[in-house]
Amino acid sequence: MATETFLMLWNPDTFREFAAEIPVLRAEISANGTVSDWWSTGTRVHGIEEGDRVFLVRTAVKPWSVIASGRASGTVYHAPRHSADEVGYNNRVRIEWDHVLDQEHAMPIPEQEPELYAYVTKRQASGNKLSPEWAATLSKYWESHLRLHA
């Protein structure tokens, strides 16, 4: 079965805690190659399988940028919200992050790929599946970017 590729979104204005976690995640990846974490899948309740590729896109800061990549280490599950001031549950997936970049080294979504750029920047929630073509294109740019900034 072919793996799929999904976009997860991070808005630093609403989930400030993640910025403080970045150095910790980077250190863990440096020591062990990956780090296990979870991320919200928005309204997506199924369709993400173990091994699927995941890109974390930083929103709310121009330009929107890829800041991390990894693989799903399970399927979507339902869990209590992460903040004490939020009530209810959200959908999540466990992720083995293989790269997490400092914010200043995040990879801008390539504007020279207008259809991909438009697709990514119109997203309002995590869990969006990329077509195989766009996944390959984003992966190509990401791998090139990592050679310079990982």
Structural description of this entry:
With 150 residues, the protein is of the alpha+beta class. It has one domain (5-149): Roll (ph1033 like fold). Helices cover 28% and strands 33% of the residues. The chain contains 3 helices and 8 strands; from the N terminus they run E-H-E-E-E-E-E-E-H-E-H. The chain has helices at residues 17-32, 114-121, 132-149, and strands at residues 5-10, 35-42, 53-58, 65-72, 77-80, 89-100, 107-108, 128-130.
Topology:
Blueprint: E1 5-10, H1 17-32, E2 35-42, E3 53-58, E4 65-72, E5 77-80, E6 89-100, E7 107-108, H2 114-121, E8 128-130, H3 132-149
Parallel strand pairs: 1-3
Antiparallel strand pairs: 1-8, 2-6, 3-4, 4-6, 4-7, 5-6
The number of helices is 3
CATH topology: ph1033 like fold
The total count of strands amounts to 8
Mean pLDDT: 91
What general outline do the C-alpha atoms trace?
Answer: globular
The secondary-structure element order is: EHEEEEEEHEH
Largest sheet: 8 strands, mixed
Structural Rg? 14 Å
Summarize the structure.
This protein has 150 residues and is α+β, with helices and mostly antiparallel strands. Helices cover 28% and strands 33% of the residues.
Features:
single chain; 150 residues; alpha+beta; ph1033 like fold; eight-stranded mixed beta sheet; 8 strands; 33% strand
